[in-house]
Amino acid sequence: MGTAGEPRTAQHVLVINAGSSSLKYQVVDAASGTALASGLAERVGQTGAVGHLRHEVGEDVHERELPLPDHGAAMAAMREAFEAFGPELASANLMAVGHRVVQGGPEFSASVRIDAEVVAAIEDVSDLAPLHNPPNLAGIRAAQATFGDLPQVAVFDTAFHRSMPAHAATYALDREIAQAHRVRRYGAHGTSHQYVARTAARELGLAPESANLIVFHLGNGASATAVAGGRSVDTSMGLTPLEGLVMGTRTGDIDPAVVFHLARTAGMSIDEIDTVMNRRSGLLGLAGSNDMRDVVDAAEHGDDDARLALDVYCYRLRKYIGAYTAALGRVDAVVFTAGVGENSAPVRAGALRGLENLGIMLDEAANKSVRPGAVSCISVQDSPVTVLVVPTNEEWEIAREAARVVQAI
Ligand code: ADP
Questions:
Q1: 253 is an active site residue
Q2: Which residues, 6 or more positions from 273, have their beta carbon under 8 angstroms from its beta carbon?
Q3: Residues with beta carbon inside 6 Å of ligand 1?
Q4: Does residue 175 belong to any structural domain of this protein?
Q5: CB atoms < 10 A from the CB of 178, how many?
Q6: Which pTM value belongs to this model?
Q7: Binding site for Mg(2+), residues?
Q8: Is 109 inside a domain boundary?
Q9: Are both 31 and 134 inside the same structural domain?
């Protein structure tokens, strides 16, 4: 495992994904995607809770409990884990630290090297992602303090979608209000969609800039993207990740007047409605679990709520295939990725049921025998639209982006 010692080690990037109470990391070779080591610090900055660090090097897993009062402490614990259990960061010859940043707002249409201005700009759009950008910034500051000699690169979840044309990005909302408060569609999961779209194009034998794709990233959060010529031209998430597909705990598309109705008739506060729509709805709200495995299992055992949840979920996917087929004109492939997309044959079958008139013909046997972690074609040979399962790899994409930015300097 690893490429230490080869000239290509100069491509190693430390990828950081800092969440509100966690810090995920991975050292990735941007050229090959090989992960030298990865880890997760949890319960960061939570009063009364002891932190937990898990550090993995190949098959070796090292775990320890320790106080993690903030992201700086998590970064220090990560560094100590590298020193204690390897690989040695000095000999990995890191070329950059790549940071996942959820919201880049209108400003960022590509990954950038982080300086004081970039930090200020990320701060400035934090109101658009109040749960994500502040911890992302905490991760950036901690990495700057710990790895001050390395270039730091921000890779935005929204950047891939900045190519959306105005007619897809604009809400038909009062123009002055929308402009004053930067209300428009930004999308999310862009790093995953970008990686999966490029991988799918290669699988189809097409240049990335000539592939027309409908990509479904179906994890706990879920989004669809229409990719024309390798660029995002529409995506299902909007100002926030609440819009679009049915998700683990989010409603996805819903009449906005439901908010007024609940405020007026149920006397719920805006924060309560926010919690219901973001954390207590979707599969969880309909079927009692946000894990698709539980929902499919219950539906197969005759649970009506689970059956309906699955039907609502898959019907939404079919509607988006219809919409994005109209947006794209020609579709080369429908592509599934992330936890549900890569693993759930019933969901893929449900999403594609009855779409033969759109040229989508599923190979039922291939759909049921997808190998975990492998790129698979699950459409019949003469299907006009190919259907692919492509495992996502956001860490590799962040590493590639960071390497590209650093090499371009
Ligand atoms: P995220 O990164 O958004 O947390 P993932 O992409 O890891 O999510 O996907 C997590 C979800 O994938 C789980 O909530 C679960 O519903 C689903 N999942 C994982 N494995 C399977 C499986 N074998 N069958 C169906 N769903 C699965």
A1: no
A2: 259, 262, 263
A3: 219-221, 248, 290-293, 338-340, 343-344
A4: no
A5: 15
A6: 0.95
A7: 17, 394
A8: yes
A9: yes
Positive or negative torsion for Cα 284, 289, 293, 295: negative
pLDDT digits (tens, 9 = 90+) for 206-255: 999 999 999 999 999 999 999 999 999 999 999 999 999 999 999 999 99
377 and 316 assigned to the same domain: yes
Ligand 1, atom 8: closest residue by C-alpha: 219
If residue 201 lies in a helix (H) or strand (E), which one and from where to where? helix 190-204
Atom nearest to 338 CA in ligand 1: 6
The domain in which residue 145 lies consists of 12-156
Q: Are 235 and 193 in contact (CB under 8 A)?
A: yes
Count of domains in the chain?
A: 2
Distance 217 CA to ligand 1 centre (A): 11
Handedness of CA 113, 223, 344, 39 (dihedral sign): positive
pLDDT at residue 10 in the model: 53
Does residue 244 belong to any structural domain of this protein? yes
Same domain, 113 and 252: no
Residue ranges in the chain whose pLDDT is less than 50:
1-9
**3-state DSSP helix/strand/coil % of the chain, to nearest 5:** 45, 20, 35
Residue 194 domain-assigned?
Answer: no
- Are 117 and 251 in a shared domain? no
- Closest C-alpha to 72, from 149, 156, 144: 144
